[in-house]
């Protein structure tokens, strides 16, 4: 795929040092204000409420016709993707690569942040599992056996790592056969898992549904206790993420892989592997794993160093704070992949109109070309980068602070948060340096 770089240090309207200093200062000031003005938990453990949306909108979104329509859209998109994967040309002009790496991986994040859990609504594997269960006369929600709660999100974490490994560390990420094989394994695993464990399997183990659902917690949409569509603060939504086993692993994979994607384009890494006798693929594999482990260990260490309360053990603290990393992940996705999504996504739309390279224009988009607007406005791009990272970390600090007030003993509610604050400052400074070193 095309490089993910979206402008380097020279594009900043201010120096990198000033950008990092300002971002860290914003985080520290935010924490100080929170300590003074936010002394009781507002979301954690509180009743889930929200403002009811316009009743006709709720009725439309809740209707059977809307749900069926979403499933049909998902199946049509999946059928089209299978067609171009099987019968398309084995080169980069095949829209399959753009659909897989850009529309699915990056576009799903933006769609979920705006609209809610999109993949849950359109997931073709959920639809196929429901159809198979209907033919067999069984309940797709129940499956054959209950999903083991001790597994939590661990299968999703492994699936997400498998995807980022294919994209960032595998030797042939744009070899048609390899990507087709990955998709076949994914579909097979999802159908078998759904048949055995029911729909709970998709909530916990489908890497794309878990990713989409976590990001969707930053959208303003939610359902209240009576299943009515409401508008709600994203912070209130974030607080409803269940602290299940494997949640830290999920956020570590997402955050660590994005950081590695920036690092592998840096001048330091390029010079290092060019001057090394070790194969680049091996180095990329080791570095990707190290970035993911480092992200998980730093966060787990900072969380575990906060004093445990009466209800949560020190061992379980990291997963109770892990929801606060989701805004940081979204911030880095915006900062790192925005131009990739706009430019390569537009190219994919043009190529999708001629899926088999026969000169067709079935969608009427064959002549569409990316404008590369950000290439001509690097200062605007740099500003968006910094703002996305800073806003993501500030929102994360608010979410962590609110959870800390609910978990920490009263005497430790200020000093007890300092280890986690130190980790977030490290993420802020390190993330900005990586983004602008590419």
From TrEMBL:
The chain crosses the membrane at residues 12-38, 64-87, 99-119, 181-202, 241-260, 281-301, 321-342, 381-400, 420-437. Keywords: Membrane, Transmembrane, Transmembrane helix. The keyword Transmembrane applies. The keyword Transmembrane applies. This is Fenitrothion hydrolase. It comes from Nocardioides aromaticivorans.
């Amino acid at each position: 795929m095309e490089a993910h770089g979206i402008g380097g240090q020279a594009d900043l309207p201010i120096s990198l040092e000033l950008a990092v200093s300002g971002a860290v200062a914003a985080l520290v000031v935010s924490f100080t204000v929170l300590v003074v003005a936010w002394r009781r938990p507002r979301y954690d453990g509180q009743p889930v409420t929200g403002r009811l949306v316009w009743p006709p909108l709720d009725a439309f979104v809740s209707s059977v016709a809307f749900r069926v329509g979403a499933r049909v859209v998902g199946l049509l998109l999946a059928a089209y993707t299978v067609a171009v994967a099987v019968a398309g040309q084995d080169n980069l002009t095949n829209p399959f690569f753009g659909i897989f790496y850009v529309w699915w991986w990056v576009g799903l994040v933006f769609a979920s942040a705006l609209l809610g859990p999109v993949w849950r609504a359109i997931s073709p594997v959920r639809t196929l599992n429901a159809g198979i269960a209907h033919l067999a006369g069984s309940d797709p929600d129940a499956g054959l056996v209950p999903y083991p709660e001790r597994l939590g999100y661990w299968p999703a974490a492994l699936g997400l790592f498998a995807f980022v490994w294919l994209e960032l560390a595998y030797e042939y990420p744009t070899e048609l056969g390899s990507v087709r094989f990955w998709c076949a394994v994914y579909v097979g695993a999802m159908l078998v898992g759904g048949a055995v464990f029911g729909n709970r399997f998709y909530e916990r183990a489908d890497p794309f549904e878990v990713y989409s659902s976590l990001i969707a917690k930053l959208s303003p949409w939610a359902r209240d206790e009576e299943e009515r569509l409401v508008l709600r603060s994203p912070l209130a939504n974030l607080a409803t993420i269940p602290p299940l086993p494997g949640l830290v692993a999920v956020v570590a994979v997402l955050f660590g892989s994005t950081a590695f994607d920036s690092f592998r384009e840096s001048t330091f890494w390029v010079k290092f592997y060019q001057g090394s006798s070790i194969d680049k693929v091996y180095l990329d594999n080791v570095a990707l794993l190290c970035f993911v482990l480092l992200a998980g260990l730093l966060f787990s260490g900072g969380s575990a160093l906060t004093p445990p309360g009466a209800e949560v053990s020190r061992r379980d603290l990291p997963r109770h704070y892990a929801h606060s990393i989701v805004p940081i992940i979204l911030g880095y996705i915006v900062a790192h992949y925005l131009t990739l999504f706009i430019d390569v996504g537009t190219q994919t739309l043009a190529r999708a109109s001629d899926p088999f390279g026969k000169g067709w224009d079935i969608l009427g988009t064959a002549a569409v070309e990316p404008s590369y607007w950000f290439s001509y406005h690097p200062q605007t791009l740099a500003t968006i980068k910094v703002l996305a990272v800073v806003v993501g970390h500030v929102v994360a600090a608010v979410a962590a602070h609110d959870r800390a007030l609910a978990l920490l003993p009263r005497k430790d509610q200020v000093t007890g948060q300092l280890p986690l604050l130190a980790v977030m400052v490290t993420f802020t400074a390190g993330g900005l340096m990586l983004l602008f070193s590419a």
